[in-house]
Write a structure and sequence with these properties.
With 388 residues, the protein is an alpha+beta fold. The chain has ten helices and 24 strands. It has a seven-stranded mixed beta sheet with strand order 4-3-8-11-12-1-13. Strands 7-6-5-2-9-10 form a six-stranded antiparallel beta sheet, with no helix packed on it. It has a three-stranded antiparallel beta sheet with strand order 15-14-24.
């Protein structure tokens, strides 16, 4: 049936269309940029450096993309080696930089990864393997290596926020190496698929896009295992030039459940001298080791060493801790005693002591504090913000 529109109906139709257009232009158009969804941030993580051979495999078809060609490989396991003019994958040669993508997971030496792989030849027979992955999926592989999945849900969510913040703040940390972040403690421990668990993945999803900011910028979201009763500020630990308000240090009464809260360790004078000399200090003999300066809550900031010639040497206590294996010399919250030719260290906590205390965050979670309260406690003055 043919329905004709009467003249009066034309008027109402035109008015309605005009009104819709005005609503779009005046009300909606200015917000288009805000409403648009930005692409996911991609992160490139160096997972192997200076290798001359690796095994790459995929559960589904692989696509190898180089500067001059793209080649499809069937699902399977392929050896990668550096050759004179580039890289050799299986029986085919490629340029010195390739990207490997697949619709399924990829494996490097049998360890699984999300996203794609980038291979970069660095020298005649050495290359670097990089995992390119979405930021949120990168966090999946970080959480379990950094914190126990069995800890309170709110503690896991707090860790997800600071791990995300730390990653975004440090995206240029390894630019000179050809990637953003490494997979070690130097950045954050990242283990790909083997570093994931259902509970930690849920914590990442629950806080998707949330970071901590201060003065409009992502913060330096430092964290450590156990503070021992008080967190410290960067200048006391690393000799930093300034201490932002959110890292001035706070008292912590929540971390004493750590079974490794107290520790003891001994070092002979001979070993102290040998290690420090190897690290560049002109010390042949240690006459005396003393505390030179203390930081927050009594944590040791600097140590003073008197050598056999009576010369004084000052060293940051945290640097000393790193030199003598942080698995044994666990923190700077320490007291010292001399026994014959050796020093005994008795300490509390584990780690550098700056920022969030993970065992403290666990304690707060067990007491019913939510992740926002945990973050506010350890990083006072910061704000939680969701970013695209």
């Amino acid at each position: 049936m043919n329905h004709k529109i009467k003249p009066r109906s034309w008027y109402f139709l035109f008015t309605a269309l005009a009104g819709s257009l005005i609503f779009y232009l005046v009300i909606l158009f200015p917000f288009r940029e805000t409403l648009a969804v930005n692409p996911e941030v991609m992160v490139e993580i160096g997972i192997l450096s200076g290798v001359n051979r690796v095994s790459i495999s995929g559960e589904k078809e692989l696509k190898i993309i180089s500067k001059d060609k793209t080649v499809n490989f069937s699902a399977g396991d392929y050896s990668v080696t550096a050759v004179e003019d580039g890289l050799k994958i299986g029986k085919k040669n490629f340029t010195s930089r390739v990207e490997i993508i697949s619709s399924g997971y990829l494996k490097v030496n049998r360890r699984g990864y999300r996203g794609s792989l980038i291979l970069i030849k660095k020298s005649k027979n050495r290359f670097t393997v990089v995992n390119r992955v979405e930021l949120e999926q990168y966090l999946y592989g970080v959480m379990k290596p950094e914190i126990s999945p069995n800890w309170p849900e709110e503690t896991l969510k707090a860790q997800a926020v600071i791990s995300r913040t730390y990653a975004l703040k440090n995206l240029t940390k390894h630019t000179g190496d050809g990637f953003n972040l490494c997979n070690r403690v130097h950045c954050q421990v990242y283990a790909g698929l083997s570093g994931e668990s259902v509970l930690t993945n849920q914590a990442v999803d629950a806080t998707r896009g949330e970071i901590l900011i201060y003065d409009g910028e992502p913060i330096n979201a430092f964290f450590h295992s156990t503070c021992g009763g008080c967190t410290d500020k960067p200048s006391n630990v690393w000799g930093s030039a300034n201490d932002p308000e959110y890292l001035e240090g706070v008292k912590c009464k929540f971390c004493e459940d750590d079974p490794r809260y107290y520790w003891e360790h001994s070092l002979s004078k001979r070993r102290i001298a040998a290690v420090l000399k190897k690290k560049g200090y002109p010390i042949d003999e240690v006459e005396k080791l003393e505390i030179d300066k203390r930081g927050n809550g009594g944590r040791v900031s600097k140590l003073r060493i008197i050598d056999g010639k009576g010369k004084k040497h000052i060293i940051l206590a945290n640097q000393f801790r790193i030199f003598f294996n942080p698995e044994n010399q666990r923190s700077t919250f320490v007291e010292m005693k001399i026994y014959s030719d050796a020093y005994q260290f008795k300490g509390k906590g584990w780690g550098h002591g700056v920022g969030l205390c993970q065992w403290g965050a666990r304690g707060m979670g067990l007491k019913g504090h939510d992740y926002k309260e945990i973050l506010k406690y350890y990083y006072p003055g910061t704000k939680l913000k969701r970013v695209d």
